[in-house]
Each structure stands twice: as C-alpha cells, then as structure tokens.
Sequence to fold (290 residues):
Amino acid sequence: MTKEKIVLGAGLAALALVAASILVLYGMSPSLVGAPDQGLVTRPPETPIAPPPQQVLPAPQQVQQTKSETTKFENTISVSGTGVAKANPDRVLVALAISEEAKTAQLATESAATIFNKLLATLAAEGISRNDVQTNSINLNPVYFYPERAPPVITGYRLDHSITVTIKSQDTTQLGKQAGKVIDVAIAAGVTRINGISFAAGDESIKVLRTQALKAAIEDAKDKANTMANALGVKIVGVSSVSESVFIPVAKQVFRGEVAAPAPAAPPTELVPGEFQVTVNVYVVYGISG
Fold:
C-alpha cells in the first residue's frame, strides 16, 4: 500500500467519524460508517424513537368576581344623617384587684386565695352567682430591693389577681345600689384596688337601640335631602348609594383607683348609672332631576 492510499484512507475514516458524531448529536442514527480499508458499508436504517408527548396544561379556570353595583344618576345630591337612641343600662361591670405580698411565693398565693374565697362568699350572700365572677389575670412576680452599688436582692413575692363582677338588673336605681354594695363588700373582704366600674347594655338591648338610631338617621338624611331639593327646585328620583357607621360605647367607666378599708360607720356606696346611648351616622346619595 502506497503512502498516498494510507493518507486517503485515514482521511475518509476521520470524515466518517465526524459525520457519525453530528448525526448522533442531532438524535439520528448513522446509516453510513466508513472503515479505513473497506470503503463505505451501508446499514439498514433504524426505527426512529418518537419524542415524548408534550404535557398539555389545563386551561385556567375563569374566576367570577361579584361587584357591588350602585344605581347611576346623571345628577345627585349627597347628605348625611345622624340618629341617637338612648336607654338605661341593664348591667354594671365592677373590675377588682387583689394584691398580696409575702416573703415567699407560696405565702403570697395563699393570702390572695384567702381573700378571693372570702370575696366569693360575701358576693354569694348578696345574691351574686359565681357565674357572674370572672378572673381576668393572675400574676406572680418577685419583689426586689435595689441597694447602691450592689446587685438587686429579692425580698419577697407579690401576687396580683384581677377579677370582674357583673351585676344585672332592669331597675336602674337598684343597679346603682347593688354596684355600690359590691364595692363595699369587696373592700371589706380585702380587695386592694378597683380597676374600673362600667355601665353597659346587653346584646339584645344594643340591637334594639341600633335599629332605632338607624331609622332616626335615615329620617334625618331624608329631611335634609328634601330641604335641599326644594331650595334648588329639583325633584328626588331615587337613591344612588347609602352607607352607615355605628358608634356603640363598650362601657361607661365611672371610677378607677386604689381603695382603703371603709370606716365602721361609713355610709353605703351608691352609684348613678345614667343613660346608655347608641349613635348611627348615614351617608346617602340621592338622584335628582329637573
């Protein structure tokens, strides 16, 4: 074999390998393979491999949004109205606190428990059930002494027990007297603080007052709209929109502070509840013509 044939055979073999590599790179099976001394050999074509099926994502679902529509008028006037409904409160909430300090945590806890049990007994004697007495919180904390140029030193422990007593009565005068009586017996039992006395109304009473105040607010807005329309020489033809806001006082607090044991001949405590009120404000947009 001459030198030229050897070079030619090597070149053909290299071209065949490059072609085969390109076909493999593009995912095709080579059908022609060259050999250095045998020329070109034809192979039967291989069965092509089908690509994996594409994953079809479901179409996004249409989300329906509901929009609040208001009646549209070409010309409008806007007014506000206020309504107030008042009633006597039917309950009073008396917030009390027991605070006891002792050398040890156990002694402070026992002392506070003794006062609390005495309070429950005296309230029961006044006709107030345990169901109307609620513990709000109990906190036990160390008491520190802070000497100069020295770390603080624990000198004892203090337990704070906050309680709320609820008194219910449809008689306003009786409600004030009962609230005063609770204060007196609580102080006598050892309660050291009154955190607040609040007069309030029940859910049913508030619902009735809100309805009354809302009607009054609508009438107030209607009167204002009619006055404006008459002055402008136009007619009210409908309501475009209306909104309301309600103010309901949570409770009417009348007292808060530290207390001391009453004097033996001190007169009984009596409170004056006053009135409980609900206020409703409305904003109305009227359509007009003419």
